[in-house]
Amino acid sequence: MSAPETTTPAPGRRRLLIFLPLAAFVVLAALFYVRLGAGDSSRIPSPLIGKQVPAFSLPPLEGVGTQQAFSDGDLRLGKVTLVNVFASWCVPCRDEHPYLVLLSRDGDLRTKGVRIVGLAYKDEPSNSRKFLGEMGNPYGQVGVDRSGRVGIDWGVYGVPETFVVRGDGTIAYKFIGPLSEEGLQTLRPEIAKAMR
Prior knowledge:
The chain has 196 residues and is α/β, with parallel strands linked by helices. It has two domains: 10-39; 44-195, Glutaredoxin. It is built from six helices and seven strands. The strands form two sheets. A five-stranded mixed beta sheet has the order 5-4-3-6-7. The longest helix is centred in the first third of the chain and has 26 residues, at 11-36. The protein is elongated. Mean pLDDT is 88; it is low at 38-42.
């Protein structure tokens, strides 16, 4: 009786079989990386555009701006409001902050009654106060959303995000990501449209 014959792949083929899973992994990783960066995140549609702001009431950030609770009623005062969602732990929020300060000092927007309010998202109030103390405070009012529940109701994907809200409380536009010079060029026409 002879032993059953086993075939072993040729050495070149064996090397190919060893590197095949690695090659497949590299191809998939490259594909995921390319798709992850594809598209403009600021163009992600929001289901809230054209709808009333969600009902909410947040405590104020004590020691900053007005000391009254921040609620959906504050966004139905007849004037356009920018609602900026920020956090002290958010690096892009630091990058965009000078542009918010610039907007808050814009005489034309102030004359037209445009307000900027902040929503401190999943942040400790002491950290938010320190952040605004260091960077400047562009907000007329700041609400503290420690749990992130209000942010979820607003459809926040991540900070920073800025909403343009019409005077009747309707969300007119959502800008995702940090504001920049280019972002302001996109945001200003949306503010003008919301005033009509």
